[in-house]
Sequence to fold (61 residues):
Amino acid sequence: MLKVWRHSCITRLWRYWITSDKAYTLANIFMTLNVYLCAEFNAHALVCEYPASKSIASLSS
Fold:
């Protein structure tokens, strides 16, 4: 779970750094918007799914 959030935070910081520097553009340096949004949605989905999977595991044991 930590690896997912580490990736998400690093990508957010990278994106912020590119947008704050006028020498770079997102289109030339950053990943595509589809890839970025997919990674963000997957990170949030895993966080939402984690408590549910823990409760199901505790019910079966």
Observations:
- The chain has a mean pLDDT of 84.
- The CA atoms of residues 42 and 48 lie 10 Å apart.
